[in-house]
Amino acid sequence: MKTAYGENITTAMDGHVAVVTIDRPPTNFVSVDLVRDLAEALEAADGADAVRAIVLQAEGKAFCAGADLARSDDRVAIGMEGVSALYQQAARLFAIETPVVAAVQGAAVGAGLGLAVCCDFRIASPEARFAANFVKLGFHPGFALTHTLPRLIGEQRAHLMFLTGRRIKAEEALAWGLVDQLVPAEDLRGAALALAREIGENAPLAVAATRKTSRRGLLEAARAQMAHEHQQQTILRATEDFAEGVRAVNERRAGNFKGR
Predict the structure, then answer these.
(1) Quick one: DSSP state of residue 161?
(2) Within a 10 A sphere around the Cβ of 126, how many other Cβ atoms?
(3) Distance of CA 17 to the CA centre of its chain
(4) Whole-angstrom Cα Rg for the chain
């Protein structure tokens, strides 16, 4: 039996595992509403005594391709007030106390990368790609990635991703520790569920206490970092380079940036 949260999020139980699905294919672009609904689904699972682990998965060809900045009807695309609202909802994801395993297929880009990184573990298929492509948009990284990504893969590799905007293939992501396990696409959800079940077999109070210690200070750091990121994004969003970056990405070409 599935429980719906808004139009694009559903939850189903598998033993002690809550399987949360983002269903906005093919790219699962983030929006304020989608992240709010996702937070509500995760909070509901977090508060259920029967849930000991969570799998986060997505329908379509991509795990999450970030924000669709080309849309004129999306709050995040329209302006920084929408981005602020997005980050308010994103902070709720960092407050979840139950371990979360992400099943990543296709692209995890921008805010989609931020979503994947805020989970405890990432199981990926060979088709997965990871990118912090903000500089290609003339923009600043967000979704607390300037804190969470270096924490996960180290400062130098995160710096490389931030300043080049390059896409990291699944095999390299595995070597870097960005991905915990690489499996064929047909085995992806099964592998994520298996890891969640393995976690769920352990003493729940011990798991919760250990996770809380390991992630100590993460929520507060993520909130503070998103506030700083939003400040920098506000400055850059007003530039000509940002407008050119959005056009370039939508037209699948390199940006012709002028530094203004």
Answers:
(1) H
(2) 14
(3) 20
(4) 18
- Residue-level pLDDT, tens digit, the chain, 260 residues: 899 999 999 999 999 999 999 999 999 999 999 999 999 999 999 999 999 999 999 999 999 999 887 665 566 655 788 889 999 999 999 999 999 999 999 999 999 999 999 999 999 999 999 999 999 999 999 999 999 999 999 999 999 999 999 999 999 999 999 999 999 999 999 999 999 999 999 999 999 999 999 999 999 999 999 999 999 999 999 999 999 999 998 888 999 999 99
Distance CA(260)–CA(244), nearest Å, equals 10
- In the chain, where are the structural domains located? 2-185
Position 165, amino acid: G
Per CATH, the homologous superfamily of domain 2-185 is: 2-enoyl-CoA Hydratase; Chain A, domain 1 (3.90.226.10)
C-alpha 167/C-alpha 132 separation (Å) is 8
Residue with the two structure tokens 């308010």: 88
Q: Are strands 100-104 and 53-58 parallel, antiparallel or unpaired?
A: parallel
Contacts of 129 (CB under 8 A, 6+ apart): 106, 107, 108, 109, 167, 168, 169, 170
CA distances 4 to 26, 28, 37, 40, 91, Å, are 19, 16, 9, 10, 21
E strands present in the chain: 2-5, 9-14, 17-22, 53-58, 100-104, 107-109, 121-124, 129-131, 167-169, 181-182
Strand-strand pairing, 9-14 and 17-22: antiparallel
Here the tokens at position 45 are 């699972």
